């Protein structure tokens, strides 16, 4: 609708190297998905505080990763301005990073959520995966 000059680009591009921006996008997307999964899907969470928890996570992500990657956390948030302005510099970072971060955040949360043990017991051992593996159960039952 409006003529936007190239100097007024409102999209996201990496401020530093694309590798740092990719790592930042993966981490902040992971954190956001982990928090959303916790407050929105778990009945142990206080539902009234879900919006505050998600909003504070986004704010923290923007403060930490904003100077490095622009803190997109959403491929559409970067792809839309890139299409409008025709600036596709390292756009792959903003497609790959959030997708990997969200998938891993959901996976890790579900892995923690569906165990029978409380989180404090999972973090005591060096690797809780050893304690739930079939070979460990078989060897501990023989003893």
TrEMBL record:
Family: Belongs to the MIP/aquaporin (TC 1.A.8) family.
Protein name in UniProt: Aquaporin NIP4-1
One protein family per Pfam: MIP
Superkingdom, natural source: Eukaryota
Keyword tRNA-binding attached: no
Gene3D superfamilies the record matches: Glycerol uptake facilitator protein
SUPFAM superfamilies: Aquaporin-like
Membrane topology field: Multi-pass membrane protein
Organism for this UniProt entry: Camelina sativa
Annotated TM spans: 20-37, 49-71, 91-112
Compartmental location: Membrane
Keyword terms of this UniProt record: Membrane, Transmembrane, Transmembrane helix, Transport
